[in-house]
Amino acid sequence: MMKPTSTLRKFGQSLWLDNITRELLNSGTLQRLIEEFSVTGLTSNPTIFDHAIRRSATYDDDISQKTSSGKSPEDLFFDLALTDLTRAAELFQPVFARTDGVDGWVSLEVSPLFAHDTNATLAATRALHQRSGKPNLFIKIPGTAEGLPAIEAAIFAGVPINVTLLFSSDQYLAAARAYLRGVERRIEAGLNPAVASVASLFVSRWDVAVSGKVPRELTNRLGIAVAQRTYKAYRELLASAQFQRVANAGARAQRLLWASTGTKDPTASDILYVKALAAPFTINTVPEGTLRAFDDHGEVGEILAPDGGDCERALASFTQAGVDIDALALRLQDEGAASFVMSWNDLLACIESKRDKIRKAS
Hints:
Layout: H1 4-10, E1 13-17, H2 22-26, H3 29-37, E2 39-42, H4 46-54, H5 60-66, H6 73-98, E3 106-109, H7 118-132, E4 137-142, H8 147-156, E5 161-166, H9 169-188, E6 197-202, H10 204-210, H11 222-238, H12 241-248, E7 255-259, H13 272-276, E8 282-286, H14 288-297, H15 311-320, H16 325-361
Parallel strand pairs: 1-2, 1-8, 3-4, 4-5, 5-6, 6-7, 7-8
Helix pairs in contact: 4-16, 6-16, 7-8, 8-9, 9-11, 10-11, 11-15
């Protein structure tokens, strides 16, 4: 009998892990997830690294060795993060090679303090890409209004980008068009247009935002409906003349990625968003607990319909229930950016605190 995770891969969807810690690497757990759970990539963000460094002593030796370097907490963080992500990238290198760069990626976020600063985002993106030295490392740029020009410029510069903090089909399409503009500029300049990218749509936060505010029959339905609408936009873009022109010149498709797919409602299925969002040529990045739950008792539901299925009827029900979907999408993106800033500040404070303790002890 085929494992549920293998079934998803057979249907053409990649499963990525939404986590990284040094213990995950040192214990061999990540290698086992690759071998046993069909995991073919991973994502990280400031919150993940904040939890990893705060809750573990495994980073203390590195911090101790670099304490006298005079580096800022931010530079020290990127040293720590790139050490982990370089090791992870090497574990995914066979997948990266086998799929010719379609799969096998890891992701690192630029400083979230730059979410509304185009020039600073672009400068940080290029610096991190150069610093990493790994071909299968995505740099994450938020799909905010200020992030879009940085996405276009980064793609034109040949930097692989994971566009993060997307919450609607409109935000997805804006990011996808920024990606395509960057690719088209490379074609016009006589450069290789095959620069990889993914676009990350956050799902579960929709349902958290309206929890207790809509009729019971609509509970945990909004995130999936938004994802269905976005999948329709994605499939239409892949079929468009604009994409087919750049594909004919050698460009890659920017794959759609489902993010924030751990179930937040304790009364709902712990595999809700994995089962509901099976779709070819997409990625689902999941927390380790969700991954293990899906392997244990998962089943693949119906494959998402390219035309969005019943999403418009479902979304109309939310509108009738008083949910302003467009306004909520903007609010969720702003709140997501603010949440990452908070985690980022906590993370840097944690590193500084550990460094101070090491200095005092020496």
